[in-house]
């Protein structure tokens, strides 16, 4: 099955360790790892994957074209060089030495290497770390295009908006264990709270007494309230202050849910 | 593989496609990449190819002793050929392996579907090519400006010796590359390369060395290669011991170095 699975977790949660185990770069102390029903070091399994590691420095004195041609030779049905270069946005870099490229360009070359073998399963370990917003958008659109072709992607990231924008499934790791997993919406729902904000004279102390309210605070002329459901709170607000204005209800994002989940884990 | 609606079913089952991957082609491309990578790196080319040539031109041509005749000229070429053959093995295997380990390239290669053994085989092939290139350049200089009257078949024998003689140094370089990481490997290899060149009689006659150091010379692989080179270059009178013993010793050293290096690579990567 295709789609993007994001592996999320605070630093040291075990994201890169998980990737290393899945790629056969590290051996598990206990348990079993399989890719396409084979051990991860089996050549047949590795021919169906593409890899972009967090810390792989390619040889500085090789040209992008040479790197692509070499890596494509490992695969039984590689993409054409021009096609890969076009997808990853490195067409103009083909005759440049890898060491002379900027950080963002090097990252795009690494992405090109990851997809040159037409992989069914793509491992991307923090693919956009250190990229500017435009370069990050390029990576995202490449990932979306691959998924549309039917590839599955396992992504680790510490940019939550990346997971939110790309992934179909999220797996949250903390201290080497899966804390929770599900669709982005499901994860978000676990930290589901509504944030209500309005310009109102209602005192925060009063709002804090209303059922369900977990937090109420004043910020200048604005009142901010957090509660699991917005509707009853809005009714009470309007009853208490018919003059209120700039009413705004927002659902907590993945970032808030993630912080809440990992904070609860740490307790 | 299940394919939910909206996803394209992937063509070509992996088993049928395996036939299209050629390990030989990968080896050739890998070796070509390794060759280009090193040729474009002055930090490698200058010490590995430049120094033996420079030293030979200085000590073998410009400052060559007036007495001694043809045999001294041949012996000088033999010694600098050994000096030039050691470097591609030690640096070409050791420094690149240490860098690849340090910078994560080896991990990436292991994750990618590169057939097992190709990585080391390519490095080995490139080291052999560099050794032959170094020996050819030296032989060319010897015949042209060095006034060493070498027959064509003697030059050929010297090149074959270079191709095979680099192997123990490849093993030693590889072993050091598994012990030391990154840039430190170049320093450690220099600490092995230069003292070995002096202590095995390659850059200095053993007669000049203190006696106990001269007695230890047979423990260095370079000593045995030097004796073979003397014999091949036509300075047989200056070579010590029979060729068979030196060949066996070098072969044994090569196997031991590679065995330890392989075990270390398998264990910790």
Summarize the structure.
Chain A has eleven helices and ten strands. Chain A has helices at 15-22, 43-46, 64-73, 81-88, 103-115, 133-149, 160-166, 184-190, 204-208, 231-240, 254-266; strands at residues 3-8, 49-52, 121-125, 152-156, 169-174, 177-183, 194-199, 215-219, 222-227, 245-251.
Most residues in contact, chain pair and counts: A-B, 39 and 41 residues
Number of helices of chain B: 12
Helix content of chain A: 25-40%
The low-confidence parts of chain B are: 1-19
Overview of the molecule:
The complex is a heterodimer of chains A (267) and B (269). Chain A is of the alpha/beta class. In chain A, 38% of the residues lie in helices and 21% in strands. A six-stranded mixed beta sheet of chain A has the order 2-3-4-1-5-6, with helices on both faces. Chain A has a four-stranded antiparallel beta sheet with strand order 8-9-7-10. In chain A, helix 4 packs across helix 5 and helix 8 packs across helix 11. Chain A is elongated. Chain B is mainly α and 269 residues long. Chain B has twelve helices and no strands. In chain B, helix 2 packs across helix 6. Chain B is globular. Chains A and B meet through helix 2 and helix 3 of A and helix 1, helix 2 and helix 5 of B.
How are the elements arranged and paired?
The complex is a heterodimer of chains A (267) and B (269).
Chain A: E1 3-8, H1 15-22, H2 43-46, E2 49-52, H3 64-73, H4 81-88, H5 103-115, E3 121-125, H6 133-149, E4 152-156, H7 160-166, E5 169-174, E6 177-183, H8 184-190, E7 194-199, H9 204-208, E8 215-219, E9 222-227, H10 231-240, E10 245-251, H11 254-266
Parallel strand pairs in A: 1-4, 1-5, 2-3, 3-4
Antiparallel strand pairs in A: 5-6, 7-9, 7-10, 8-9
Helix pairs in contact in A: 4-5, 8-11
Chain B: H1 14-17, H2 23-39, H3 42-62, H4 69-102, H5 105-111, H6 118-144, H7 152-165, H8 167-179, H9 184-199, H10 211-216, H11 221-232, H12 243-268
